[in-house]
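We emphasize that the prediction below concerns an isolated chain of 685 residues; any contacts that depend on oligomerization or on bound cofactors are therefore not represented. The input was used exactly as deposited, without trimming of termini.
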Amino acid sequence: MADHRHTNRLINETSPYLLQHAHNPVDWYPWNDEALATAQREDKPIFLSIGYSACHWCHVMERESFEDEETAALMNRLFVNIKVDREERPDLDAIYMDAVQAMTGQGGWPMSVFLTPAGQPFYGGTYYPPEPRYGMPSFQQVLQSVADAYHKRRDQVQGQAQRLTNALQRSALIGAQETELSIEMLQEATATLLQHFDNQDGGFGSHPKFPQPMTLDFCLMEYVRTGDLDVLYMAELTLEKMAHGGIYDQLGGGFHRYSVDAVWLVPHFEKMLYDNAQLLRTYLHAWQLTDRPLYQRVVNETIDYVLREMTAPTGGFYSTQDADSEGHEGKFFVWEMEEMEEILGAHAGGIFASYYGVSDRGNFEGKNILSVVRSVESVAERFRITPAEVEQSLAESRHKLFAERKKRVKPGRDEKILTEWNGLMIHALAECGPALGRQDALDAAVNAANFTLESMSQPDGKLFRSYKDGQARLNAYLEDYASFVRALIALYEATFDLRWLGEATRLARLMVDQFGDRQLGGFFQTGLDHEQLVVRRKDFIDNAIPSGNSLAAETLLRLAVLLNNQDYRSMATRICAAVKAAMAQQPTGFGRLLGVASALLAPSQEIALVGEPADPTTQALLHEVRRRYLPYTVLALKRPGEETVLPVFEGRDLVDGKAAAYVCENYACRLPVTEPDALAKLLES
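Result of the prediction step, given as a token string:
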């Protein structure tokens, strides 16, 4: 075991990110009562550093400053230093990111915030360099200046802290004055997206470019609602460009975090569970709408990646894979031309290089990120072979290079399991598995749900946020409950096991009781029994992950339709109404919630099947449903003679002893059908 000159309090944590800093010379505390009490007792300001394991610039700042003895000594003398993993503590991350953005107009990680001993922010930023550069002061200069201000200009600091805290508290006051939603809101949101859409390379804005699956899902929903081909084009061009770009791992499947350029070529190489969960559903929906093989291939390859590299043996899914390996960003994923030709040979290597844009010069620091630069037909013409032969050669080459890549040093993996992110992946696999006939995907979703209920539940039935090394810890947040309940509903619609719906109903009630704002509507991020922070905020804006209120609204609306629960529908409506103007004007910040609003404005649609799930006739009816993208539809199944609490099955049974499908709108059902062709006609109409 390695000898370490320094060991601080983070050695007792389970977060891989915090453990990475356990041997810094900085006297780090985790966020806890001891740290806050020490700051009060010693009258020192707090330096709060927030990051995450896969964050490249977090590693850079650690190497430059937190491992530097002189800088650490200054930090220890002037501050109480607290290190937080943003993935474990999204509440702290959200509060203090709001503060940094209010102070500087921008945010990011590592986040560097200075607080009073009471936890009120008064100064902050993100990455600070070890020496002054690019117009930024050095980190040591910042430390000295902030400490001087705290001790010599205390009144100014306290005034700034109080003004910021007052501003942060405004989110708690967001509520709906009236609850009417309109189609015009959706139309305005779509028009705004069209204005910001990149017609050449897909995506929204210039660069960096993020995948934005929630916005793309809204586009697909709007196409279903309106038939507007321009809206479908926004989604399709973006999905195609991403699937062909360097942001997608062309050998191993799965998506990197985002692209630093406008053409999706050079990514930040970390892979996040939440990105891949959401993109799985978006590509699945695009395939269901268009039947394009590219989208189906991306879904299958990404499922393979998740099951191979992000699934824990005990069930549940790991959080992230780092961007760096052997100290270099992207080293695991890039190739030199000579290396590639040596593995593939001249002919196959030439075909591969032509298709994936590999050259001696490279496209990333002298090496090559694989991205599709020309069509199979173009390569076939160039090499005077058939397109089928090109496809075969590319498949064989990908297999060989993937096998060779496995010998490299892999990027680090953050193996903590988070309830929220697991909920997103369970939801995705529960949809993809049945639609694509991937029993392995559905099995993984079931295993992860069982793991969460068995290993991440508190004795009183509440949920924990995080699990690592056999230990579940931290109270779950709104987004944990909403994401996991939504996943359980998806599992019911995949398996028709009423146990999942029962757990979803129980946890939804708990979510409403713990997080709901009965006065103004919407939900707080933290529960009634959470520690008291400087503010108790509500989160409505989708970032890389859906906001807690977006997830809660979608979850409650889904349950409202399945259970015919109008209270849940009303709660979902109040969430949308509270931010309806912002949704229309800033649609990329509300993609998931716009989808909920669209569903609220459409008639509810229910498909109720009666039959044995394993019966071939029932399976044929289910296939007709699952191969289609039906965003406004819930699916339920009752076995013959089974008792069920679902109102959609009232008075409905087999027809002449055959499995039957009832297609309903607002619980008014058409005549049942027993043949797949007849069901197809109903669904198409």
